[in-house]
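Still learning folds. Look over my entry:

…
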Amino acid sequence: MKWETILISVFTSLIVSLFTFILGLRAGKDQTDRVQLKEYYRVLTAHFDSLLNSIKEGTPKDWGSFDFVNTKLGRKPMPLVRVMKKESKLIEIKPKLAKKAEECELELLKFGWIFNNTYREKIEDEAISLFKKYAKGKIIEEKNNVYSGEKKKILLLELYFVK
């Protein structure tokens, strides 16, 4: 009779200890996951703030603003969300948010590319013609583009306006 009670007590203690140990591991893992998840959200927020600020400053980022990776199909730009997806970090955040982040990054970089390759040149051409008409100063008209090697027009703002 005593042995049965002792065995039941030991067995019950082992089960309770194992259950408590598993709960402790689970809580620790959740805490670690929360820290990592918080870091992913922080990095994404900083990335999109940077994209937004570049638009506000009139120099939107485009595909050339990021590192390129060589693939079988050629060189491919790797902005942050694309890197996170490739490294399987994007699956850690909410699926709707991950999809929205991908779409938003794609649209912002498309906008930046269109602006930098279409409208910026038109704006610069118009600004140069206005400065030539109404101001005296130095206008440098050619400079190599860092990304494409093309000649680009730039303004040196040492202007003296004509009355």
Remarks:
- The chain has one domain: 2-117.
